Amino acid sequence: MGDSLIRAVDGISLSIAGGEFVALLGQSGSGKSTLLNLLAGLDTATSGSVVVQGRDLAKMSSEELARYRRNDVGMVFQAFHLISSMTIMENVELPMRFAEVERTERAQRVRESLERVGLGKRMQHRPSELSGGEQQRVSIARALANRPSLLLADEPTGNLDSRTGEDILNLIRDLSLSMGMTVVMVTHERALAERFAQRLIFLGDGKLLSSTIASGSSSVAGGANSQEVQA
Amino acid sequence: MKGYDLFELAVRNLRQSKLRNGLTTVGISVGVASLVAMLSLGVGLQQLATKRLAGSGMFDTVFVTSKQDSRGFDREEDKKDQHPEKAPVLDEAARAQMTGMQYVTEVEPEVRVMGQIVYGGQTHFGFVTGLPMSARENEAFDNLQGKFFSSSSAEEVILLNDFAKELNPQNPKSLIGQQVTLSYGEHQSLPVDADTPGRPQVAAGQSDSPVTSSGDDYGFSVVRKAQPLKVVGIIDEEPYGGMRTVSRGGIFLPVDLTEKLNMAEFSDMRSSLRGHGKTFMTLTVRVKDPAKVAQVQDAIKNMGFRTFSVLDATKSLRRFFTVLDLFLGIFGSLALAVATLAIVNTLVMAVLERRREIGVMKAIGASDSDVKRLFFAEAGAMGFFGGILGIALGFAIGKAINIGTGIYLRNHQLPAEPVWILPSWLIGAAIAFSIIVSLLAGLYPASRAARLDPVQTLKYE
Fold first, then answer.
1. 3-state secondary structure of B118
2. Which terminus of chain A has fewer CB atoms gathered within 10 Å of its CB, N or C?
3. Are residues B66 and B155 both part of a single domain?
């Protein structure tokens, strides 16, 4: 789990170490969401390569990319993107259906994931019955369901008030540390990013502007990786 | 994604918009129902016609005559066969050969003689006809009063109602169980006398052949005899629609009894003149399965006899029903074709509505083929439920048709008969067809859903 190495090359060249918490910052249109989608295998690069754990996403078929998303990646969105007709439990269960996890194991893993995000008691509720912060916790639980090594978060605090946003980022950081999960988060809130991420990567016009070690972040073992930046 | 997950998700998605999917499913069911109702009507009509033909006793029967008899009946055939006098004769040997053929269940002569019934001191003239035991299945005996012959050689008689009325105009039914006397002419062979002048040379050369009591090639006497018989039944109509015999008969005896009584027949004189011994005018050969009639007919033809069956008539009948089924099927399918468009419409709508959901599913690990299969499963489920509902609906329509025609037939003093029959194969075929058509309809929406770009659908708006 700890050795995921990610390279995105499109005028941008960077590598992220396993277990690292990285924040992608930049104005809207700077290309940070595109970079995230490239890492998720939702978008494919027209040239260059995206290498995750030694595998080049650009060379994978759509079926292989789906399997990669299913088994190695968890995604969290600004708008939560929960399926409103399903209960919390069913939402968290959904990725395991695609991963063909056995039924008996699913219920246990759903409970486990929801307990990790502090929502163990509201499994039968619908997303609309929850607050924004709770919905984001559900979406994190869903992202954790298949025990990914990489968590991709696209403006996870964008729809939340600042207090709730902080709670969510605390949760993400704790999960990253306890599970050894690499986190790549897109955000435009620099203050939050500096508090929680280990590294900040600034993008502008699709170019990498700078990459700095965040001042406030606690140092972890994997933090001393070499980073290559090409502007 | 595993099958049961696929099915579960498909059903829950369908239940999300109950009204729309319900209406589409009802649309499919109407299509299936109309197809089922039409095809079942075709099947029912065909069975009705087949049953009528089989009931007439003509369907599984080959009539055999010798080419020596009734010359000029078929001029084309006469031309082909220049020497009919050399054709084989219908004797006991020919009968035994036919009885031994595959699929043949019964070979009986058509016995038809003049006779008189003496009852209550009065004499009534009539034609006596021999009936095989298989005649019981003939539709003429559907309305039999009393009983059928207890055995093929029982000393019993069944009378035609018209004839019974001659005997007892007030209450012909009361005749059942009573004794009557049949007065008839017995065929008595003349003792073979080698010295009799004029005896044909051909027979003299065959002196080693045994001369049976009935195998007479020389001459016979007709002697009046009386046979007591018990009336066991009365029928309204002549069996075989009266088609088998030249004119109306009113007295029916078991065929073996007529042979045992050795009644003198019209054809005996001709047989005697020709020196063939006992021959039959016509043999009726019953075949086990109507489908084998042609085969048996060919075999008998090869023996050199003239044959006739109504097979040719049924051939065109079957062709007619095939065409009828085809047209009924096309009309029935029209509604299903419309329902197919409804499925396409419903699923395309669902794809548009669930764009974001499809994107989410892809983002959390659904492959293109998972999404495609999900929409296929939804289409298939609608087809399946529509098919079942359609069968039920079609069944109800069919029952209504049967009840309706039943009332109509009864009002016209006719026995009610089902014109609509739902065979079990059609139930399975209709549901399978409904699912296949629905899946075809799901082809376009499913591939459209699978092609959706998750990045586009997940953009925050």
1. strand
2. C
3. yes
Token duo for residue A225: 């990786």
Show the domain range for B195. Answer: 61-309
Put simply, the answer to whether B455 touches A43 (Cβ < 8 Å) is: yes
Nearby residues of A126 by Cβ (< 8 Å), 6 or more positions away? A84, A85, A86, A87, A88
Query: Hey, is the C-beta of B364 within 8 angstroms of any chain A C-beta?
Result: yes
CA A125, CA A129: separation in Å to the nearest integer? Answer: 6
Distance from CA of A160 to the nearest CA of B (A): 14
Would the CB atoms of A66 and B362 count as touching at under 8 Å? Answer: yes
From A37, A62, A94, residue closest to B364, measured CB to CB: A94
How would you class A197 by CB atoms within 10 Å of its CB: exposed for 0-12, middle for 13-18, buried for 19 or more?
buried
Residue A146 contacts B where some CB pair is shorter than 8 Å: yes
Q: Is A132 left (phi over 0), alpha (psi -120 to 50) or beta?
A: alpha
A97 touching chain B per CB within 8 A: yes
Dump pLDDT digits (tens) for A191-213. Answer: 999 999 999 999 887 778 888 88
CB contact under 8 A, B364 and A142: yes
Say yes or no: A112 contacts chain B, CB-CB below 8 A. Answer: no
- In tens, the pLDDT along A42-54 reads 988 777 788 888 8
CB contact under 8 A, B370 and A98: yes
CA distance B356 to chain A (A): 8
Q: Are strands B156-160 and A199-204 parallel, antiparallel or unpaired?
A: unpaired
- Domain end, chosen from B280, B309, B338, is at B309
Domain ranges in chain A are 6-81+148-224
Give the model's pLDDT for residue A208.
Answer: 80
Q: What is the DSSP string of A152-190?
A: EEESTTTTS-HHHHHHHHHHHHHHHHHHT-EEEEE-S-H
User: Could you tell me whether strands A182-186 and A150-154 are parallel, antiparallel, or unpaired per DSSP bridges?
Assistant: parallel
Q: Which of residues 147-206 of A touch B (CB under 8 A)?
A: 155, 158
Q: Decide if B360 and A79 are in contact by the 8 Å CB cutoff.
A: no
> B170 and B80 in one domain?
yes
Considering the domain architecture, whether residues B292 and B328 belong to the same structural domain is answered as no
Alpha-carbon Rg for chain B, nearest whole angstrom, is: 35
Which of B309, B324, B356 finishes a domain? B309
Domain shared by B366 and B409, yes or no = yes
Given this model, what pLDDT does residue A228 score?
A: 31
Best mutation target, A71, A80, A81, to test chain B (most B CBs within 10 A): A81
ipTM of the shown complex: 0.87
Cα separation, B130 vs B153, whole angstroms: 10
Mark yes or no for CB contact B367/A85 under 8 Å. no
Select the more confidently predicted residue: B198 or B432. B432
By C-alpha distance, the chain B residue nearest A142 is B364
Nearest chain A residue (CA) to B450: A62
DSSP B140-189: GGTT-EE---SSTT-SEEEEEHHHHHHH-SS-GGGGTT-EEEEEEEEEEE
Report the run of H or E that residue A22 belongs to, with start and end: strand A21-26
Round to whole Å and give the CA distance between A49 and A28. Answer: 24
Q: Which of A69-73, B163-167, B312-316, B400-404 has the highest mean pLDDT?
A: A69-73
Residue whose pair of structure tokens reads 């008189």 in the numeric block:
B116
Q: Same domain, yes or no, for B223 and B367? A: no
CB contact residues (below 8 A), chain B span 13-42, against chain A: 16
Are residues B228 and B188 part of one domain?
yes
User: CATH class for domain A6-81+148-224?
Assistant: alpha beta
In this structure, the answer to whether residues B147 and B207 fall within a common structural domain is: yes
